[in-house]
Structure prediction request, 472 residues.
Amino acid sequence: MNNFIKTQIVVIGSGPAGYSAAFRCSDLGFQTIIIERYSNLGGVCLNVGCIPSKSLLYISKILEEIKIFSKNHIISCKFKKDINKIKEWKNNIIKKINEGILNLSKIRKIKIINGIAKFLNINTLIVKNKKILYKIYFDFAIIATGSRPIKLSLFKKKTSVIWDSNDALKLIEIPKKLLIIGGGIIGLEMSYIYNSLGSKVDIIETNEQIIPEADKDIANILYKIMNKKINIMLNSIIIKTKIEDNFAYITIKNKNNINIKIKKYNKILVAIGRKPNTDNINIENINIKKKNGFIIVDKQLKTNINNIFAIGDITGQPMLAHKAIHEGHIAASVISGKNYMIFEKKNIPSVVYTDPEIAWVGITEKKAIIKKINYKIAIFPWFASGRAIISGCTEGVTKLIFNKKTNKIIGGAIIGTHGGELLGEINLAIEMGCDVEDIAFTMHAHPTLNESIGLAAEVYLGTITDLTNNKT
Prediction:
């Protein structure tokens, strides 16, 4: 059976990029269709990414805090973790948000078609599902097909011993010994979750620091904190693997060819990144240009085909949900005729939701060096923060980066409890072109972690009184 449909806009994919673009298109008055290959909306972020991982990280933080209070004899209780109840709690959160997205699409009268979309030409798609073959004619298409975990060539055969992030978030089991390959955001967050749930966790990272994109001084604070509970092997590689009797035997060596070790694990989690889903929608048929698998777009998210846009993970790094949402809104606005709308990559916030959290935005110190920017940093240590002392997070740091010539803020980073929540003020300050006095003279509530931003600006000015000050 064939179904012929004509629409103004078709959006391929219903993740944060896709549903945000579709909703905005509908709000702007366009007839809009979403094509989604899975039965649930929300894409990777909602179903096997951001939301389930942050749900588990929240539980993990509570478990760790209970341990701290118990160790200090503030509370005295025995508790038992129920993995099935944790899974049920996580799944209920996903279900609730999924229903919310579905209801919003119904209110906007957006038609949802389940199936796999392929381009026939620059104005036509076919969509196959189990029962129906659809042919969709469109004026504009927005590709938002997302990404999937990168597999490691070391493990050629599929086995239950090897996990990707999707498997890990299912809480299939809590392995006694878990190796995580990759010390980036996904690897660190998963290590925190599984360590709190009872696994003995090792991380192997080929670089000399965790979170290679972050400044080393900030990343090293998290490394020192996490390495107390999790064995993090930096500057190391796997040279041999063997899967036998439901165990993985991994030979690891330091890049300096020393400390060769053979270790035995119950599970291996491969967390070395993600790759774009651009190889199954037949974009080659209409000659859409790609580079390293990513679709090439201009500042308005247009591909080389004028009526076809691409947004989200498929447009390149960083692969972040908030970047995808922002791109979705811009693509919809451009289609509606707002040609002044462009996407700029300069201020995309990044957050690692471990405990403590690491968050950064704008120009990092390492980028400032590469770009030869005349910069100056200001650091406020949280051991001098009353709220940090109350909250047990005195190892935290707030770091601001200023252009030395103009005294305008160009970047910032925070490591500490709720670092991701605090980052918003720094991001807004960069967007507004604030100078150091704008931040330092803004009154911050006391005692809060947020005031560390104002205090860091006072460090820069030499007016701080919460630390010793050599300036007058």
